[in-house]
């Protein structure tokens, strides 16, 4: 075992052991057994025989005798790949038998008190395809030289080259970043960010060259790029590939070929071996490394700990090269294949769930161009279909699935990205030419919309696509018309084109038309000098108002083919959910305009008219806001305005079956029973009392009986306190629409009263259930017997509670001399929480509520506990038997202090022994461990006053009922307090944990776990204006 201390290399350490010659002379002479006298001699150590595998443990862990602590040697200690052991052998000569090759390195990461081990092992069977050290160095040099090919290229020109290579329609931001990485060999962040900023900001700063749509992250060029320049990137890429073709070979670890096809990179000779190929085995992770990384293990906290050398004469058979199944038993092969198949299935299901997206597919036969945007024609048939796709699939596969789903399609078939805008559905460039790209590369993600059409027209009208042709919805005001008009225009339309279009529809000349912006409030005229600017350049957005004034025109002039809306128009999407009362996206939908003062009833009527559902459904349906999580919020009151209902621009409403609440009514959710199960929905009046509301709920649910009461439910779904005031109205109790109430069984107690369950704590046979583990370790009371319930006022004292407990039927047969012979415990889930102390204190000040249970313990003598008293369970250890005597009560007074010394003195008085003879420890029932209680260690004296020890705090957390073990130092000096019972419980806990682990691993994880649905949060805030 060569020591790292005092040596810098493995050869130096071996030389100090096997080449150092010690001369024995003088007082250290050697006694010769032949001549029987002291003679001068030399002493040295040599190796007589060598094993096939040489194991060398580097002694990196030492002990510092001065500091009295261990430490790890982290100094440099080199070791060779090839070791010649001839100089260290007894028969030293040049022979191949003394040559060893490095076979494995065990690396330790960490310090002397803990760390992590992993191993480096060479690829002796040539299972991987590796590059040599020289080629690896050339690879890094070539990567740097690749940057020189593009260093002189302007970033604007380079971006134009990349975009033009993708096609006339452009590409997504992710695809552009990936292409730049492949071409340059380095990302934009490392190459240009320091000088030009992020790629997004760079593209937005050069909006005159690039078109960047931040909604779909799509990039395109404003003008077509020169074909000669477009081919330049191919030339640069070819130069980079030709530059690296000779030397660059990526690491492909684990590229195993089948057994019947040997690895072609390994020759069949005996000297065939991999070049620089090593694996790093780190638990369940295996990664390829090169011999270069072995040099990093010479020193540091992560350094070599053990070395394994293998004789060079040991040759692997030819059949082993490139064959991962060489000499592997068939049963192991079958087991490995089965495990790999299961792993592949799990990985497939996981990736499928990870890459599954929901998209809405809109069909062009159900749409028409109306008012500048694509609108649904009618409710006949589904205007949109919901599809679950794998975003790794190609565009060609998507088109094939759509054609198979539609059945028949006449004419050209094109799929384009689409988006819902206030003006209607807008279409972006199609996916033609990207058939081999994945949906992810094309920017199709979860929630996207696709439009299926012929690529040019919808219902005979040409459709303008792209980000530049997005429609802007404007409110147009004509002086002689009371109601304004609403129409959509392309945002790249110039003001001159807008003026001509409006004048043509109004039957006047363009010169006679004046356009005033901000009508009717802030009026700014758009003059003829701005005619060349686009609507986007004029910063016109959806909902802006334009006033139209005509000069020199007699009579009334009106806009033709317009729809009337109020100023400040907002838009909402209404989905038809009358069939399944859900939020199925495949149902009919319509865009409905509204204002802040628009009644909800008007929005519903407009939606019914657009969806062509008929007037007979108006009284049997209501509007509910889609929370976006698969849940619907409270129905909107039809008497409220849009502002009062908090309707936002662009929100989604669902038209469902049901009645809408009036302004004087509440829409409430109810659950009935001991657990929160299925919900009931009920509309009640605001002035309805709690008792009347309870009766209505029970009648609707068909539940009989009178012993029921209502409880509030928190936003987290937890049942809170009951509604005590049954005669108060719901409005006075601050109950609002959408609140959740729980109907609990049991008669409601008067206000200020508690219902407490009483349990009798008795000595009994020990149970194996872990449920009562904490009770079993306290006071020796291992059996709980449930008594009756006690109803008592929270103003009563603890003595009153004891007196009422004695009046129970089950307690009449038990003789209790006085109230002082009873001790009451507060139980929570059959676990003792604390002792109820101070008999004259009120119950409400003791923190009692109906959710707690009371445990009754019978005492042999009177007891009057104060607030500062602590009752502990004292158990004496029997010497030599690893067990304890029966538990005894110890009254520990903490009024003065709660330190280890004061507790030790109290124990000494109780057991009638000297404190110096005793050793005490606390038992933790959850872990079955013991912690010795001793005074806090005294550090060096400092000016700051040290805090006084408190056993109630960390690490003891002493409380009522804790078990204290006592040991006599004279009879047993060992600090070990564990018992046979603790060992059994630990073994049982270990077995239970192992069983749970096996059950979890055996569970079929291939079924994807659906996340819990999110609960919408609705907060009611009063208006203080």
UniProtKB/TrEMBL annotation:
GO annotations of cellular component type: cytosol; nucleus
Gene Ontology MF terms: cysteine-type deubiquitinase activity
Biological process per Gene Ontology, one example term: protein deubiquitination
Region listing for Disordered, in residue ranges: 249-272, 968-1025
Compositionally biased intervals (Basic and acidic residues): 983-998
Name listed for the protein in its UniProt record: USP domain-containing protein
Superkingdom of source: Eukaryota
USP domain segment(s): 1-312
InterPro entries, per database record: Papain-like_cys_pep_sf, Peptidase_C19, Peptidase_C19_UCH, UBL_USP40, USP, USP_CS
Organism: Eptatretus burgeri
PANTHER family the record matches: UBIQUITIN CARBOXYL-TERMINAL HYDROLASE, UBIQUITIN CARBOXYL-TERMINAL HYDROLASE 40
């Amino acid at each position: 075992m060569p020591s790292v201390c005092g040596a810098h290399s493995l050869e130096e350490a071996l030389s100090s052991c096997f080449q150092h010659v010690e001369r024995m002379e003088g007082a250290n002479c050697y006694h010769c057994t032949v001549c029987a006298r002291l003679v001068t001699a030399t002493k040295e150590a040599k190796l007589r025989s060598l094993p096939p595998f040489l194991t060398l443990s580097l002694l990196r862990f030492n002990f510092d005798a001065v500091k009295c602590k261990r430490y790890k040697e982290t100094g440099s200690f080199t070791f060779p790949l090839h070791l010649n052991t001839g100089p260290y052998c007894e028969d030293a000569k040049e022979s191949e038998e003394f040559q060893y090759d490095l076979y494995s390195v065990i690396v330790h990461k960490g310090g002397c008190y803990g760390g992590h081990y992993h191993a480096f092992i060479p690829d002796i069977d040539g299972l991987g395809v590796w590059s040599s050290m020289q080629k690896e160095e050339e690879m890094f040099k070539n990567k740097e030289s690749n940057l020189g090919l593009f260093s002189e290229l302007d970033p604007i020109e380079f971006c134009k080259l990349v975009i033009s290579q993708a096609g006339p329609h452009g590409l997504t931001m992710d695809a552009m970043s990936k292409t730049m990485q492949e071409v340059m060999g380095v990302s934009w962040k490392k190459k240009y960010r320091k000088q030009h900023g992020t790629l997004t900001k760079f593209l937005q700063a050069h909006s005159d060259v690039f078109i960047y749509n931040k909604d779909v992250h799509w990039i395109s060029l404003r003008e077509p790029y020169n074909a000669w320049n477009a081919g330049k990137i191919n030339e640069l890429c070819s130069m980079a590939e030709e530059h690296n073709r000779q030397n660059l070979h990526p690491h492909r670890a684990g590229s195993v070929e089948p057994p019947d096809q040997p690895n072609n990179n390994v020759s069949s000779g005996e000297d065939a071996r991999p070049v620089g190929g090593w694996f790093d085995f780190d638990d369940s992770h295996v990664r390829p490394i090169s011999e270069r990384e072995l040099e990093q293990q010479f020193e540091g906290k992560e350094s070599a700990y053990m070395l394994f050398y293998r004789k060079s004469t040991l040759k692997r058979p030819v059949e082993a090269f490139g064959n991962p199944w060489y000499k592997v038993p068939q049963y192991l092969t079958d087991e490995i294949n089965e495990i790999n198949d299961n792993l592949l299935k799990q990985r497939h299901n996981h990736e499928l769930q990870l890459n599954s997206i929901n998209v809405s597919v809109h069909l062009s036969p159900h749409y028409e161009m109306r008012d500048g945007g694509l609108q649904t024609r009618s409710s006949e048939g589904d205007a949109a279909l919901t599809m679950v796709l794998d975003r790794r699939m190609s565009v060609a596969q998507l088109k094939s699935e759509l054609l198979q789903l539609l059945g028949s399609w006449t004419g050209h078939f094109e799929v384009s990205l689409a988006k819902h805008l206030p003006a209607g559905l807008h279409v972006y460039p199609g996916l033609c030419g990207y058939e081999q790209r994945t949906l992810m590369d094309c920017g199709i993600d979860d929630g996207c919309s696709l439009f299926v059409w012929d690529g040019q027209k919808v219902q005979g009208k040409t459709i303008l696509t792209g980000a530049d042709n997005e429609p802007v919805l404007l409110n147009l005001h004509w002086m002689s018309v009371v109601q304004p008009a609403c129409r959509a225009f392309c945002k790249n339309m110039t003001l001159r084109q807008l003026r001509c279009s409006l004048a043509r529809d109004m039957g006047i000349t363009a010169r006679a038309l004046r356009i005033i912006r901000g009508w009717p409030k802030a009026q700014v005229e758009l003059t003829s000098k701005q005619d060349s600017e686009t609507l986007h350049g004029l910063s016109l957005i959806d909902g802006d108002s334009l006033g139209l004034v005509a000069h020199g025109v007699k009579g009334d002039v009106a806009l033709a083919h317009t729809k009337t809306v109020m100023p400040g128009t907002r838009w909402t999407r209404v989905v038809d959910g009358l069939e399944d009362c859900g939020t199925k996206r495949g149902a009919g939908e319509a865009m409905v305009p509204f204002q802040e003062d628009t009644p909800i009833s008007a929005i519903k009527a407009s939606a019914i008219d657009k969806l062509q559902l008929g007037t007979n459904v108006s009284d049997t349906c209501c509007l509910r806001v889609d929370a976006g999580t698969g849940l619907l919020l409270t129905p909107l009151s039809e008497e409220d305005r849009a502002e009062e209902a908090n309707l936002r621009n662009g929100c989604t409403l669902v038209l469902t079956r049901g009645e809408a609440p009036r302004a004087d009514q509440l829409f409430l959710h109810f659950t009935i029973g001991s657990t929160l199960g299925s919900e009931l929905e009920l509309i009640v009046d605001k002035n309805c009392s709690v008792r009347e509301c309870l009766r209505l709920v029970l009648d609707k649910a068909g539940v009989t009986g009178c012993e029921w009461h209502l409880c509030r439910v928190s936003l987290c779904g937890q049942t809170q306190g009951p509604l005590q005031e049954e005669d108060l109205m719901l409005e006075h109790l601050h109950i609002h629409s959408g609140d959740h109430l729980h109907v609990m069984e049991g008669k409601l107690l008067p206000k200020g009263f508690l219902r407490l369950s009483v349990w009798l704590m008795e000595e009994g046979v020990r149970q194996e259930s872990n449920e009562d583990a904490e009770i079993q370790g306290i006071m020796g009371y291992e059996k709980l017997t449930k008594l009756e319930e006690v109803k008592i006022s929270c103003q009563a004292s603890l003595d009153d509670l004891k007196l009422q407990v004695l009046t129970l039927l089950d307690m009449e047969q038990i003789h209790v001399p006085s109230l002082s012979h009873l001790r009451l415990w507060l139980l929570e889930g059959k676990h003792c929480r604390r002792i109820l102390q101070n008999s004259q204190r009120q119950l409400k000040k003791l923190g009692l509520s109906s959710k707690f249970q009371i445990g009754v313990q019978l005492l042999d003598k009177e007891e009057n506990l104060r607030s500062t008293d602590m009752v502990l369970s004292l158990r004496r250890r029997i010497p030599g038997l690893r067990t304890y005597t029966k538990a005894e009560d110890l009254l520990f007074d903490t009024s003065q202090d709660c330190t280890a010394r004061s507790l030790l003195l109290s124990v000494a008085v109780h057991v009638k022994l000297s404190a110096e003879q005793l050793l005490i420890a606390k038992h933790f029932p959850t872990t079955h461990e013991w912690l010795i209680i001793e005074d806090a260690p005294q550090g060096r004296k400092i000016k700051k006053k040290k805090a006084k020890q408190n056993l109630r705090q960390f690490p003891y957390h002493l409380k009522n009922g804790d078990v204290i073990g006592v040991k006599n130092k004279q009879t047993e000096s060992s600090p070990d307090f564990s018992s046979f019972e603790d060992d059994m419980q630990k073994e049982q806990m270990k077995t239970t944990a192992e069983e749970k682990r096996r059950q979890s691993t055996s569970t079929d994880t291939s079924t994807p776990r659906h996340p819990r649905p999110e609960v919408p949060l609705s907060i009611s805030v009063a208006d203080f204006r």
